[in-house]
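=== RUN LOG ===
request id: a7f3
mode: sequence -> structure
chains: 1
length: 395
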Amino acid sequence: MMSKTVGIVKWIEAYENYSKNCIGVRNAPLAYVIRDEVAVPAAPALQAGQPHSDVHGSVKEEMIARLSHAHGLFRDDNAAVFDDIELATRGTKFAPTIAPFKRRKDGRAAFLALKQQHAGPATWDKEVKNCQNFLLNQKWTGGTSFSLERFLSQHRAAYVSLQRCAENIQVEVPNERTRVKYLIDNIQCSDSDVKAALAAIKLDDTPTGMRNDFEAAAAFLLPVDPVKNNPKKRPNAEVSAAGAKTSKGPKTGVELRYYKPKEFAKLSPEMISELKELRAAKKSKGNDSPGGKKSAKFRQSVVKACLKAFEEKEAEKEEEKSTIEAISGILKLRSSAVGGDAKSPPNAQLPGGKKVNIKETADDDDHVEVAATKLFQLMRSGGKGRQGDKGGQGN
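=== RESULT ===
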C-alpha cells in the first residue's frame, strides 16, 4: 500500500517484485502482464540440460518474457493486476490516473500510466540530484547524537538509489574509490581515533585496500564511532538545556520561575516587584517560553489570582492587628477604671460590630497586649465553635 513512507516510485518497484511471485490463472507470474514489450521475442537456445535459456536463467523469467498477451486467459490476469493497483491507489492523489482504465479493468495500461506520469525521467532526475547532493555535501562531525553508523547507512542508501536511477535514466554511478573519497571528505570529526582511522584508510591504497573498498572502509571506521562509544553524548541544545540554572534576582534573590499560588503568597512585596521586573526583561529579550496568546493570558490570570490572594491575606493581617489594638485599648481603659474607681461598661464594641464582655484586668501594657491577643483568638475560635454548634443542631 502507498503511504507517506512508501511513495509511488518505491511502490512501483515493490509491485514489480511482488508480481513475479504472484501466480495468475495461467499458472504463471503476473509480471508477464506488465513487462515492457508486448510482442514475444524469438526463442533463444536452451541451456544444456535445462528447460530454460541462458538469456533468462530460470523457468519463471522465461514465462514472464515469453507468455503471449493474446491468450484467452490474459484478460483475467490483466484484471487481477488492475485490482491490485486500484486497491493501492484508493484514496490517494494517484487514483485519477487509473480512472480511465477502470471500466475495462486494464491493469497493464493503468500500471504503465502510473509509471509514465509519476515515475518518469523527471522523477529520477530529482532523485539523482538529492542523492548527489547528500554524497557531496552532507557532513558528519560527531558533535551530536547522530552516530557514524547512521551516517554510513545513509551513504550506502544514496549509492543504492543512484544505482536504481541508472536503470531508468542515464546517470554516472560513482565507483568504489569515489565513494570512499566522498566518505572521507565529509567526515569532519575532531576525535583523535577517527582521524587516525581516516589516515589509515588513505594509506591503504592497494587495489584491494580500504581506499578502493567502501564496505571495508566503513567496517574499519565503525569501532571508533565516538557517539556510539559515549552513550551519554547528546546534542548541543540538549546539553545546554540540561546544564541551565534558574536565574535569581540581584536584589531579593527571588528565583525567576513559575510559582504555585501558595508559594507566591509567601513572597514579600519586594520579591514580587522584582519578579515582575525580571519577567518583563526576559520577555522583552525574546526569551519567554513559547505558547501563544492563550498561554500568555493564562499566565497573567495566574499572576492576578496570586496577587489577589496575597492582598487578601495582607488585609486579613491588618484587620487582625487593628482588632488586637482595639481590645488592648479597651483593656487599658478597664484597668484605669478599676484603679480610679471609675466604672467601665461591661460590654465593649469592636471593629466590625462585634461585642465582647471584659472580665479580666491587666497590670501593665505587656500584659494587656498578651491578654488582647488571647482574647482575640478566643473570640475567633469561639465564633467557629458556635457556628459548628448551630450546624450540629441543624443536622
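=== NOTES ===
The two ends are 70 Å apart (CA to CA).
The chain has a mean pLDDT of 80.
=== END ===
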